[in-house]
Amino acid sequence: MRETTALCTKPVIELDFMELDRIIDDEYSRDKENLIMILQAIQNTYNYLPKPTLAYLSEKTGVPLSQIYGVATFYKTFSLEPRGKNIIYVCLGTACHVRGGGKIMDRLKEILRIDTGETTEDMRFTLEGVRCIGCCSLGPVIKINEDIHSRISGDMVENILSKYA
Amino acid sequence: MKIQTIADLERLSRDYSAKLYYPERIKVNIGMASCGIGAGAQASYKRAVENLSDDKNIEICRTGCIGFCEEEPLVEVLSKGKPRVMYRHITEDKIIEAIEDYKNQEFKKKLVLGQMKDPRSILEDELENPQAHIPAIDGIPYLEEIPFYRQQVKVALRNCGYIDPEQIEEYIARGGYFAFLRSLGEMSSREIIATIKESGLRGRGGGGFPTGIKWETCAKHRGERYIICNADEGDPGAYMDRSVLEGDPHSVLEGMLIAGYAIGSKEGFIYVRHEYPLAVKRLITAIKQAESYGLLGDNIGGSDFSFRIKISTGAGAFVCGESTALMASLEGKVGRPRAKYVHTVEKGFRNMPSNLNNVETYSNVPVILLKGSKWYAGMGTQRSKGTKVFSLVGKVNNTGLVEVPMGISLREIVYDIGGGIPKKKEFKAVQTGGPSGGCIPERYLDLGVDFDELTKVGSIMGSGGMIVMDQDTCMVDVARYFLDFLKEESCGQCNPCREGIKQMLDILTDICLGKGKDGDIELLEELGAMIQKFSLCGLGTSAPNPVLTTIVYFRDEYEAHIRDKKCPAGVCKALFYYEIDKEKCTGCQVCARKCPQEAITGEKKKIHVLDQSKCIKCGICYEACKFDAVVVK
Fold first, then answer.
1. What fold characterizes domain B387-470?
2. Which residue on chain A is closest to B400 by alpha carbon?
3. Do A95 and A150 belong together in one domain?
4. Predicted local confidence at residue B147, as pLDDT
5. What is the domain-level CATH number for residue A149?
6. What is the CATH number of domain B16-146?
């Protein structure tokens, strides 16, 4: 069977300007102070921040593109690169760390053959470290998309990943 | 309906109090904060609703964090005239069994954590204890008497786990919004501030600045004033604020309303980290409900006081917990701190006077106003009044949230409440104060925990994270961990923090890789002192603390890494290897089966062998072996 390679190349993003207008104007009333939340909403739509959206946002709000770029690169949540279909957040908070969160991260890197912040070639997974999601009593914890997997050990990782196509 | 008077509140309170305490049907409260959901409560809830929604005698409800996270998912079941029973580890496969157990009043020990003696909140003294005339169940302990809960006094957490956080009426039923409406009608702004000052309440975010004085100073400055709530709980290992936001969001809104009235503000902001999506969701719901009852909005309670609250989400930057950085971030900018020659109470958000307090601080305020400053100041130590919530996590048996009067010793928290260290391992240290704090060794465990005491041994109480570490924790690795965290989180504008932390991290990384040299420890100390002295903000000046405290208390571990090239705890991969102890190996094959590298071989009931050339030191075998036969060398 031939593997499809379509997903390996960078996807071409078609911008939905109506949706962008809805976010910027309706939801956040074109207010500069809402910049971070507008960026979050855009990222929720596209899974990352496509560069043209930033230019469009700058034009609409009057915030210089340099400043928007500054915000988009300062805060950890934002990604300027396309991310995988499933995002794995490995909690690296102190409580998870002392209970072996680092080992879970190592195991994931090995299985997925990517480093932190990278995406698998098939765009299935992006691996990210996160500084505490507040489930400290259940450590080590990983969060895949919105699901929290608690009290995991290295040998459970493969099985958990298999649930995410 | 708009709430205008105390009588309106009382009416609502009476109606819902009956529903909370004397439900005609069997009421099943499932603890569904993020931690409960992480442990499987969502699935349990779903299963219960699917199976029992037709049963008219059962009501499935959601509640916030019940606190004893180790036993999650926790489910409390009650009904009129019957005992209130807490069931533990109620995953989806057990939820039906637990409800059946309650229906039949069997109370099987394997399911039950305890029975509740008195469910009233600290604000409900005048109410008769709903459980007063219900005979106790034989052989089942009272929740209030089990070691985890025995020493707790719930002030900030008064409603967490008791109410549905998405129902404002249940908050009101337990005494909510009375403090606000009363102070609005009967107290002047000066009187409120005086009460807060007398109570001795200090900022619960970690800084410990007296809240009353902050309010007073902010109220003095002219211009549009803002009330801001710091819900950017960034310390890894701390989740007190998340629990309050998810379990009792109205307590924070009420605290902010009181602050708004006292300081003379019309607008409040809650800056909450985006890693807490459930907290954001519940806050949005809470604000909408408060607005619909007229408790937020224009001319509240018919007075000329108007107040609105807006939510703003962070985007993953630890430094935004610092006041000036937080306010920059609120303005939609990059969150970089500034030097505080002028304090934020004078010029903060939008360059206007801004009062910033943390979630737990606001949540304490209504209680202080209702119960009085004397009552509050009666708890705690001389300079740290009241209670404090701690998240007790790491290598400790009873993990969870504990709220105790300040001054309680670390030993009581770790051993009495926490139940000691799991798997009979040895205690090594307790880390307090997050990346700005330090690691406290065994010999200081009898210190009382408050704002001042822990600073004497180089740590701080901080916002309340308490991470217990055992013999398997490498203190050099922990120091390296915090610096790695801080290097990532440094905003980069001042040299000492940006460059200094990186240099310290490089040295520590070398030590962990076995490339440490004589003189490294001294160099770390020198760099640490420099960063403490010359950094711009609190993040920088406190950044070296975890390294410096571990050097003071665990110097031998540093020396083992540097001189002997050994990691005694078996964490730093370059400095140890696993071996199978021939005396202890029973040949059970568990490790061999689990090894992802197939590095372990051996027949059943024969001693296994570990092939060092294949081993990647992932530690799976070490954790899997029940006979301690895999050892660190």
1. Ubiquitin-like (UB roll) (3.10.20)
2. A137
3. yes
4. 95
5. 3.40.30.10
6. 3.40.30.10
CB pairs under 8 A between A and B: 161
The answer to whether residue A35 is domain-embedded is yes
Tell me, yes or no, whether A28 lies in a domain: yes
- pLDDT of the residue at B624: 87
Q: How many angstroms separate the Cα of B156 from the Cα of each of A92, B283, B364, B519? A: 27, 16, 5, 47
Q: What is the DSSP letter of B575?
A: G
Please state, in angstroms and rounded to a whole number, the distance separating the CA atoms of residues B596 and B598. 6
- A40 → chain B, closest CA residue: B315
Q: Is B301 left (phi over 0), alpha (psi -120 to 50) or beta?
A: left
Per residue in B364-393, pLDDT (tens digit) is: 999 999 999 999 999 999 999 999 999 999
Provide the token pair at B602: 């051996």
Indicate yes or no: CB of A94 within 8 angstroms of CB of B467: yes
| pLDDT band at residue B584 using 50, 70 and 90 as cut-offs | very high
CA distance A149 to A152: 7
Residue B423 has pLDDT above 70, yes or no: yes
* Domain range annotation of chain B: 16-146, 177-374, 387-470, 475-562, 577-632
**Which pLDDT tens digit goes with each residue over B38-88?**
999 999 999 999 999 889 999 999 999 999 999 999 999 999 999 999 999
Taking alpha carbons only, the member of B399, B579, B567 closest to residue B478 is B567
The CATH number given to B577-632 is 3.30.70.20
Structural domain boundaries, residue A92: 86-161
Taking CB atoms and an 8 Å cutoff, what residues of chain B touch A141? 38
Q: Is residue A4 part of a domain?
A: no
Contact A132 B234 (CB under 8 A): yes
Domain B177-374, architecture per CATH: 3-Layer(aba) Sandwich (3.40)
- Are A93 and A140 contained in the same domain? yes
Is pLDDT larger for residue B229 or for residue B624?
B229
> Has residue A3 got a pLDDT over 50?
no
**Residue A28 with chain B: CB contacts under 8 Å:** none
Q: Is the Cβ pair A103, B37 closer than 8 Å?
A: no
pLDDT at position A1 is 42
How buried is residue B423: exposed, middle or buried, by Cβ count under 10 Å (0-12/13-18/19+)?
exposed
Is residue A65 domain-shared with residue A98, that is, in the same domain?
A: no
B9 in helix, strand or coil? helix
- Cβ of A137 and B400 within 8 Å? yes
Residues A26 and A50 reside in one and the same domain? yes
pLDDT of residue B201 exceeding 70, the answer is yes
Distance CA B561, CA B356 (A): 43
Please report whether residue A2 resides in a domain. Answer: no
**Percentage above 70 pLDDT, chain B:** 100
Q: Which of A54-68, B62-76, B378-392, B614-628 has the least mean pLDDT?
A: B614-628
* A143 and A109 fall within a common domain: yes
Same domain as A58, residue A22: yes
Protein fold of B475-562? de novo design (two linked rop proteins) (1.20.1440)
Q: Which residue in B237, B619, B620 is closest to A93 by CB distance?
A: B237
- Compute the C-alpha angle B44/B159/B54, nearest 5°: 35
Indicate the pairing of strand A86-91 with strand A125-130.
parallel
Chain B residues lying within 8 Å of A75, measured CB to CB:
314-317, 335
